Amino acid sequence: MIEANALTKRYGATTAVNELTFTARSGRVTGFLGPNGAGKSTTMRLILGLDTPDAGRVLIDGVPYRQLKDPLRTVGAMLDATWRHPGRNGRDHLRWLAATNGLPEKRVEELLELVGLTSVAERRAGQYSLGMLQRLGIAATLLGDPRVLLFDEPVNGLDPEGMAWIRQLLHTLAADGRTVFVSSHLLPEMAQTAQDLVVIGRGRLIYQGTMDDFVARTSAHGVRVRTPHADELRAALTGQAEFTEADGAFVVSGLDSDRIGQLAFDAGATLHELSPITGSLEQAYLDLTREAVEFPAAVSPEAAR
Ligand SMILES: Nc1ncnc2c1ncn2[C@@H]1O[C@H](COP(=O)(O)OP(=O)(O)OP(=O)(O)O)[C@@H](O)[C@H]1O
């Protein structure tokens, strides 16, 4: 479990993380979202003791990172997958990491297999593609068999197959009872990966809870209805529900699809479509973060300078 409590970090006049409180639970994949500059990387560095908070604290399984007895056996983190020793091959890279960190070397072969790099393990990491480097980075985080895992943008630059593989892996790690804390800019991917969410804007918490609750908050609710008998349907809905019409379809709010179907039937309107509009993570995220974006799209780059 990761517990941040009133965590604050300033860089000069910038408050990168501002009294941030959240929990990432074990056995869950927690997505960490926020607009550019919101403070995600700073928070990750604070969790890992790479930076010192100005106020507040963050605990990993009840202990600050710097006081962990065996940090690499407790926490695995991939903050930048592109780092590697260019001259070393994948296998030697992992062996070197294991040896220099007092971790069991016998896990290296097992992890190469797990991340699908066994066949290229002899190839120099300098020649690895981004996808292969991500896999190598993930193998490195798992060397110490840690209970808590942090990944910053793990699917960046990956093809759909690579993304699906990471998604599956993160689910497996969480199902094992581990804490998996992951940031990503790719919302559709996050929607399929995370069960819980922590959303921040300008260093502050703006949402903490389950993915399902978050998506349910979206403003995009209603039922989309198409009919060749628009006049009949309009008459049936008037006074019964709020609705808008655009592109040959009605969007009805305040009535469920069963009721709308019945009203249409009673009015003699044939339905060609009757589909509830379910919220998306993207919509809910945009609704929530609109206020918190550091440089809103409405502000021109000149004005923001
Ligand atoms: N070492 C530093 N020195 C000065 N300012 C910093 C430093 N690190 C981060 N900041 C500032 O703190 C704020 C938060 O930055 P951070 O990198 O944590 O955001 P982020 O959410 O990870 O952004 P992105 O999604 O763009 O990576 C930004 O305004 C950034 O400019």
From TrEMBL:
Keywords: ATP-binding, Nucleotide-binding, Transport. GO terms for molecular function: ATP binding; ATP hydrolysis activity. It comes from the Bacteria. PROSITE patterns: ABC_TRANSPORTER_1, ABC_TRANSPORTER_2. It holds the Pfam family ABC_tran. InterPro entries: AAA+_ATPase, ABC_transporter-like_ATP-bd, ABC_transporter-like_CS, P-loop_NTPase. Residues 2-227 form the ABC transporter domain. Belongs to the ABC transporter superfamily. This is ATP-binding cassette domain-containing protein. It comes from Amycolatopsis mongoliensis.
